[in-house]
Write a sequence for this structure.
């Protein structure tokens, strides 16, 4: 341990109202609004100076109606990236690795651009690696509770062209952290889980934190995670419990399990120098703009984000994984650490405003209206990974909240719109595939190199216009999918790619038939996906 974590007290600040169970009643009121908007449960914890404030609302399990308590464990999603980046930087600190060395030196043959992609570029998402979660085989496999290996995930990513040459752009890609996890294993000759335990979990005493990989079981007292009935309607109207899905497809990008107290302790320890030397912490906090057109917006360091709000710079990460969405930030000026978790993801659009208010409260200490509440229109889907977070990262009273709710974590795409089967052990999973006619307005556009393309329709079947202005023909709805004709100009390319962007809740994904011609199939799978089709086989991805 390089530094010390400031001691904590147990009492709230003067004026804080405490309930009989010792929780912050004002904070609980904010979480109650989140639950009233549709989340089965919500947890929050803040550390401000020596004062600890925590609360929970809702239930831990809708079947038993057991009350949710603040100490419940949950899946932390992309907050895993900060843990993994910390381990990598510890190896750099020990001179067992260099930030600017090529990944191919340690992992030969894994990446086509392995001799050009550096360790730093993995950690700050400037490698250009395709995000494997945008391949439709991943959510399809996860819907079947398939166990993926890390190298399988990298191979899926490598089957697609790079997004840009290494070091020339920024794009959030979960593939970067799968490779980073493999890098840790290659350097240490130990499983990533062992290194996380030895370097972070045990030294900090994070008793509720674990790194399950191939099992969906969460040990100890935990909150169940759910899918909104907006995605999967149920006869009795209760959300589907998806806690039992194995997190193997998330691995080093998002498989961590923790609780609010442990996450608070981790980020405080990290930012106070207890895990990294001052030089390595400075490297971690060296950022790149997520949107070059908005350099003052959200910026990304090495496994950590920097967002600005009226209380100062917040350092941390947001994460979404099937059933859960989480944020954890440490404020550079005030020293406040804030953790907020909800037990529903994907979530209904109605959750956006109360989540933003709760996030603003835990980050800055007072409830604020979310951006867009005063006369302007809020983003269509604040949880959509398709919306670059930097677009919503202007300095507002809920900037860090919006950075969380528009987090780029594609792990949220797990199984959306795919047939989800009941696994052994009686874990309850949805078997329903939504009808496209129940979806909100959807706009899909196939992207074919060197060509203009058309789009997908609204749920009413009315034609829309493509990005190039070319009108589309009406689409057909048949059963549970909507199909619309796609046009492409120029010679038929060897592969075609479909990109989809939808409005709230972000439920759609498209598949494009080979060569940019034929039909786009729209299903409620993900807010943003990229599907490729081979003109050689003529097969359309599903």
């Amino acid at each position: 341990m390089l530094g010390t974590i400031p001691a904590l007290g147990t009492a709230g600040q003067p004026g804080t109202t405490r309930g009989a169970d010792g929780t912050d009643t004002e904070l609980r009121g904010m979480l109650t609004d989140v639950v009233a908007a549709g989340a089965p449960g919500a947890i929050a914890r803040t550390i401000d100076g020596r004062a600890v404030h925590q609360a929970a609302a809702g239930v831990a399990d809708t079947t038993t109606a057991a009350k949710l308590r603040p100490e419940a464990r949950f899946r932390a999603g992309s907050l895993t990236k900060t843990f993994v980046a910390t381990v990598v930087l510890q190896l750099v600190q020990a001179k067992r690795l260099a930030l600017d060395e090529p990944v191919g030196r340690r992992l030969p043959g894994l990446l086509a651009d392995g001799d050009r992609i550096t360790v730093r570029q993995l950690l700050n998402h400037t490698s250009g690696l395709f995000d494997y979660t945008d391949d439709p085989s991943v959510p399809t496999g996860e819907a079947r509770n398939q166990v993926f290996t890390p190298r399988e995930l990298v191979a899926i990513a490598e089957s697609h062209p790079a997004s840009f040459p290494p070091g020339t752009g920024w794009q959030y890609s979960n593939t970067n952290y799968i490779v980073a996890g493999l890098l840790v294993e290659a350097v240490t000759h130990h499983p990533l889980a062992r290194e996380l335990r030895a370097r972070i979990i045990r030294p900090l005493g994070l008793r509720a934190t674990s790194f399950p990989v191939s099992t969906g079981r969460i040990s100890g007292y935990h909150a169940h995670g759910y899918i909104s009935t907006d995605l999967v309607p149920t006869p009795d109207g209760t959300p589907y419990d998806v806690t039992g899905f194995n997190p193997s497809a998330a691995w080093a990008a998002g498989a961590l399990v923790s609780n609010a107290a442990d996450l608070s302790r981790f980020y405080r320890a990290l930012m106070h120098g207890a895990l990294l030397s001052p030089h390595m912490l400075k490297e971690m906090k060296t950022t790149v703009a997520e949107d070059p057109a908005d350099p003052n917006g959200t910026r990304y360091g090495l496994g950590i984000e920097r967002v600005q709000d009226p209380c100062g710079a917040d350092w941390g990460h947001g994460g979404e994984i099937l059933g859960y969405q989480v944020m954890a930030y440490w404020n550079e000026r005030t020293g406040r650490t804030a953790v907020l978790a909800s037990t529903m993801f994907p979530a209904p659009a109605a959750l956006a405003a109360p989540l933003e208010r709760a996030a603003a409260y835990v980050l800055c200490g007072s409830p604020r209206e979310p951006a867009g509440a005063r006369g302007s229109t809020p983003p269509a889907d604040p949880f959509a990974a398709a919306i670059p977070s930097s677009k919503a990262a202007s300095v507002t009273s809920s900037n860090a909240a919006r950075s969380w709710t528009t987090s780029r974590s594609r792990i949220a795409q797990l199984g959306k719109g795919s047939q989800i089967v009941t696994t052994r052990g009686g874990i309850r999973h949805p078997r329903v595939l939504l009808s496209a006619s129940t979806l909100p307005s959807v706009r899909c556009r196939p992207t074919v190199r060197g060509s203009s393309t058309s789009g997908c329709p609204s749920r009413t079947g009315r034609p829309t216009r493509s990005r190039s202005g070319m009108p589309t023909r009406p689409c057909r709805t048949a059963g549970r999918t909507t199909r619309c004709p796609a046009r492409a100009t120029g010679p038929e390319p060897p592969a075609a790619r479909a990109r989809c962007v939808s409005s709230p809740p972000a439920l759609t994904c498209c598949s494009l038939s080979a060569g940019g011609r034929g039909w786009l199939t729209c299903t409620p799978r993900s807010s943003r996906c990229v599907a490729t089709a081979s003109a050689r086989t003529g097969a359309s991805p599903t």
